[in-house]
# Entry
Amino acid sequence: MEVKDFDYELPERLIAQEPASRRDESRLMVVNKVGGIKEHARFFQLGDFLKSGDRLVLNDSRVIPARLHGRKKNSGVEIEVLLLNELQPDRWEVLVKPGRRVKQETEIVFTNQKDDPEQNPEQESKGEITACCLDYTDFGGRILEFNPSGRLREKLEALGEMPLPPYITEYSGDPERYQTVYARREGSAAAPTAGLHFTEELLEELKESGIDISYITLHVGLGTFRPVRTDEVEEHEMHAEYFEVSRETAREICRTRESGGRIIAVGTTVTRTLEGAASSILEGQDRQGWTDIFIYPGHDFQVIDGLLTNFHLPKSTLLMLVSALACRENIMQAYQEAIQREYRFYSFGDAMLII
# Structure
């Protein structure tokens, strides 16, 4: 299967640079897994397309201020660091820019972003946090160890900034709009964006109408947004991301399936978590660990029946996952109609429900 089969042309004006004025005012395209486009609506009408006994599964991971700006110790060269995965206390898997400047044993100094090093040079040399490069990763990143021990987490709000995707260049609003209203477990380098459309009021309305809700955790890292650089889909290797599924959630999913309800994954991260841990979930058991599952057309879905998602980048693993559930031809046709109707794309964009 060729990666180019998942390509499409998107006018730049359709890349959403800011969220909708109200979360649930986003547009919603409803797509039938077999028959293609079914209806166009608004997100607050989501309940009209679900039925009592269905279960939404949401990712409760919270985005951390994962983008850090530092300087190489001694030389002062500026280094940008994106935190991906915390491998163990004080030791992180990261992306660095410029990478050629960060070799093993390189030390980086991070200072409070509110401090002006030109006005207070002693503050810059002292630093609030330092990191030492321990090793390279197989995807071109680095392993950094932060010092002093235990300080990075408590200093992140001062040291870091929200890691908005590079295609969002004009947003300067509330950083909380890049968090879901139910985000509670810190650890993601990017938001599980399908959940950005929910308000607390809409979640309550759905519960009152008989729609059940469960939560999993997957900390979004490189596996979710790493570009595909191979010509053949099957040759791409996913990067592992940490997840947790509680026993309570697993049993809730089993009960829903036994009673004839549908499991609707809210986002590709939930889909990858549920399908990657399917053997445990279908036995009502908890599961945690690292998943590198790559879902593309031909995948045999074991847990989910439907998917709520945003509109994804061309030739991305996310678009391939969506195409696995609803057939590539259906999805590519839906994307063309979305472009014609000027839906808003990507992280702050509109939504698609596949059922």
In short: Residues 121-126 have pLDDT under 50 and may be disordered.
